[in-house]
Amino acid sequence: MSDAGDRIELRGLRFEGAHGVLAHEHVSRQPFEVDVVMEADLRDAGASDALADTVDYDAVFRAVEAIVTGPHVDLIETLAERIAASVLSAHARVTAVSVRVRKPKAPLPGDFDWAGIEIRRTR
């Protein structure tokens, strides 16, 4: 976490994408849910009230949307890595990012809420 213990959280982002190992998942879109938690020192933003002193979460939202709705990947791990890399490369204030990707309609043979993964990456 940042020295200040500050976080910006985007929870429950929902998009449709064509991702998965099975042949039909390469072409059929299905729902994905994403959480992004960014660690950054937010004291400057709190004092200045200026967007330039924080992380623009609209830009993060749009980047996540582009990745999830974009080209097919087999693994949700790949989606998470791409999201984390995008956040860290585009937002210098972010010192670490956690990304959770959930697949509510994963092709599993029973009743479940979702299948998913979570990663954490730092600078």
Task: Write out key terms for the chains shown.
four-stranded antiparallel beta sheet, alpha+beta, GTP Cyclohydrolase I, domain 2, elongated, 3 helices, 123 residues
- Physical arrangement of strands within the biggest beta sheet: 1-2-3-4
Mean model confidence by pLDDT: 96
The tally of helices reads: 3
- Uncertain spans, ≥5 residues at pLDDT below 50? none
Helix content: 25-40%
> Can you tell me the CATH architecture?
2-Layer Sandwich
Major sheet characteristics: 4 strands, antiparallel
How many domains? The number is: 1
In percent terms, what proportion of residues is strand? 25-35%
Strands, count = 4
CATH class: Alpha Beta
The helix-and-strand class reads alpha+beta
Looking at CATH, which topology would you report?
GTP Cyclohydrolase I, domain 2
CATH H level, superfamily name = GTP cyclohydrolase I, C-terminal domain/NADPH-dependent 7-cyano-7-deazaguanine reductase, N-terminal domain
